Amino acid sequence: MNRYHSEGNLANILIVDDEPNNLRLLSDLLKKQGYKVRAVLSGEMALSAAKSHPPDLILLDIMMPDMDGYQVCHHLKNDSETCQIPVIFVSAKDQGFDKVKAFAVGGVDYITKPFQIEEVFARLECHIKLNDLQMKLEEQNYQLQAEICQRNAAEKALQEQNELLKQEIERRQTIEIALQKANQDLARSNADLEEFAGIASHDLRSPLATINGYAQILQLRGKEQLDDKCNDFVDQILKLCNRTNLLIEELLSYARLNQAQEPFQLLKSDRLLQQALENLTTEIYQNKAEVTYDPLPPIIGTESQFVQLFQNLIGNAIKYHGEESPRIHLRAVHQDNCYLFSIQDNGIGIDEKYSEYIFQIFKRLHSHDYPGTGIGLATCRKIVERHGGSIWIKSQVGQGSTFYFTVPTEPRSVEQQMIAAIAHAN
User: What CATH number should be reported for the domain holding residue 279?
Assistant: First the structure.
């Protein structure tokens, strides 16, 4: 019958005895039982053999010259490489104190000579199994410790995630508080804007309308009584009245962008463009403008503001045309998480160094020969940025201009809307 230890190999037994006959007898018997056996004649040889190739069990005689079995066992148990090897003493000494000493130095069992071979087999089998179980237990303990370490690491990572989550919640709470303050500031700003709108529409327009009326009367009734220079003055008064009225309209339109917006919704770009073109019918007809466009995508935003955006940009292209009739083309392409719109014209163009300047309110590059208030492009910029996009221009003097603006394909997150609201409030 073959004997195996836990790793599936033949159990390896080291026999230590200074009597060759004893070694030969015990070796033959164990080999017949299926054990793998090595035999040595001295304690020094035993220590060397145990370190070079550790056995699964050692059968150790006590009475040997130079180094007895107690000393051999003591050395084995004090060496980290051999301390786990079970040692069974095999000796003719049968006194109680001999057995006690054997156990004291680290032996696991004691067999008295002459022995019954069946007893030897039984004790060998028992201690090999016990040693295998001990090794398995230690391996399980090691795995358990590793699992505990993993769980501790996972728990620590979870605690770190919880801390990060706590910080994120606190950050969002801070943003919400800031948003509440921004909303309060916006409410006050809206009240001021409403008051301003009332003043602008009544206190500014009423005297302006009176001036315009008197100027028209002068133009109709006093044309013959006035000389050419005075008639020119009257014409200038009427032009300035119209210009001032337009300035008030566009300034009010710009100011209303700070008030509560319509809810975002899915919009058809081509329908918005058609509405803008209808509003520009007179300008298009008078300037013989040609406006073409590719199929445009649906966008998410505020209808009235996007109509105003298209109207301002196309109207700007018509206004600043060159000697040729205005030709304007619109297209849109999908890029990353947004749509990129472009409005290309064949107008007079501008120097690239003014590409940021023209989006500032009341900034004009051209003389009053070109009608305008310096508010239209500033309004375009505010509309685009309130929808989470960007606007810019590519142009060369005499080569026309192309205005670009982006519109996100998804509505802004709550956090982005908070940040935008706070930025506009400030």
Answer: 3.30.565.10
